[in-house]
Amino acid sequence: MKKFVTILALLLTAFACTKIDEPFFMNDEKFLTENPLYFYTPDNAFSSQDQVEQALISCYSHFRNMYAMTSEGREMFVFRCYSGTDMYDVTTMRHNYQFNDYSIITPEHSAFNYIFRYWYQMISYANLVLHAADLPGITWDSEENYRYVKAQARFFRAWSYRNLGECFGGVFLVDKISTEPRYDFERATRVDTYKFAIKDLEESLEDFPESSVERGRIVRGAAQHTLAQLYLDLGIALGEEGRAAEAKTAYEKSAEYAEGLITGGRYALMRERFGTRMSEGPTFYYANQSSMKTPDHTYASAGVILEGNVIWDMYQTGNVAYQDGNTEAIWIIHCDLDSYIGLDRGSRLNYSRSFSPSIREALPGICDGLMEDTGGRGVTWVMPTEYVRSMIWEGKWGDGDLRNSDVVFRRTLIGNVPGSSYYGRVIPWDVIYRKGGSTSDQEKCYTQAFPISCKVSSDIYPDDAYGGNKSYLFRDDYVIRLAETYLVQAEAYMRAGDPGKAAESINAVRSRAKCNYMVTADDVNLDLILDERARELMYEENRWCTLLRMGGTVAVDRIREYSYWDYPRMGTMPNYNLWPIPQKVIDTNKDVKVQQNEGWY
Question: How far apart, in whole angstroms, are the C-alpha atoms of residue 439 and residue 7?
Answer without folding.
Answer: 78
